[in-house]
Structure formats: C-alpha cells, structure tokens
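thought: fold this chain, then report.
action: predict
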Amino acid sequence: MKQSVQPVSVAELKKMKSRDEDFVILDTRNTVEFSDGFVPGSIFIGSDGNFVEWALDLLPLTVRIVLIAEKDKEEENIKRLMGAGFANIEGFLEGGFAAWEKAGGEIDMIINVDAAELAMDIPFDENLIVLDVRRPVEYAEGHVENAINVPLSDLSDPGNLVQFEDRNNLYIHCAGGYRSVIAASILKQQGYHNIRNISGGWEYIKHTKGINIVKETSALN
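observation:
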C-alpha cells in the first residue's frame, strides 16, 4: 500500500484520460456539487453518505483511483479508502474540481428534475423508463407503476444495463437522492446520457399527484 498519496495536476489527469488508462476518477463531493458539474467519466460516491460501504460494493479493491474531493477533505477520504483496503490510490486532483473547471477541462453534469415533472412526462413520453435503484424490499413496499428495479449494488454489472436502449429516457430515483446520483454517474460512465435524476427520490414521488403507485404484495408476505 502506498504510504503517501500525491496531488495529481489537471494536466496529469488529462494525460491519463487521453491515454485511456485503466483507472477510476472517484468524486466524493456532495450530490448537489457533483450534479452541477464533474469530470466526464467520474464515479460519484459522496463522502457524506455511506461512502466506504458503497465504494466496497461498487469498486474492486485493486482499482487505481484518482480522487476528487472537497477542499481539505482529500486526506480524510484517502485514509478512509485505504483503511477499507483500497491499495492503489494514485492521488487526488490538485485544486479539486474548481481547478479542472478553471483550466477549461471538459465538464459533464446530471440533470435534476422534481417528481412533478416526472408526473407530467409519463403520459407523453413513450421512451420514458423509471429506474428505481432501491433495494428489492423497498421497491416491493411501493414503487412507480412499470418502474424497473435494478438495485444500485447490481448496477455496475453491465449485464443489468443491456435492457436499456439509446432511445430510452431514464428517470432515476432512490429513497432520498444519494444512491440515484451514484447510479447516474455509473450509467453516464457506461455511455447512457438520456438521464434525469429525480430530486428527493421516493420521499417526494409517493406524495406527488398523477403518479400511479403500486406494491408487490407477494414479495412482502
């Protein structure tokens, strides 16, 4: 395991991306900051949620990682990752996302919509798919009618993504918004870009008029 992790400059990160090296850019900022702009191809796992647990669930321990973190949180996040067994942390982006943006680096973003917009779009968009990334038991207790359930822990398996086509407009949600942004980042990395993240997740969806809610009673017995 590396004992010290060095800063990676914007120029160095651009070189790594251009060489198509096998590594992951792990962005640990909060959901709002990440959605507003991130380095294309980054995986989001915010340090203010179940950070280590999701990192272990979604990333192999051997993966090479370049970290993007909030200012002054780089060392803390690296220690948490190393403590969990991630041994190949290449470094952290010097100056964070602000430095990347200032240098004119390419930027991607997540489009957030509220549940009311979902309700308006469902009747008119034949390519709309609601992707529910909660656990099966959460889904069974209540979900949007015809929603597809792929739990976040299963989303990194490409076999679970082949059911989606380029023409599909994916509206993603979880319970409150943390897992769905992780899911959106994974889908974007895999080349799916017709994505909307439903702000507030299920907590807002279940109280929104115009959205049909169903339960899987057999799964709850």
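thought: worth noting. The chain has a mean pLDDT of 94.
final: tokens above.
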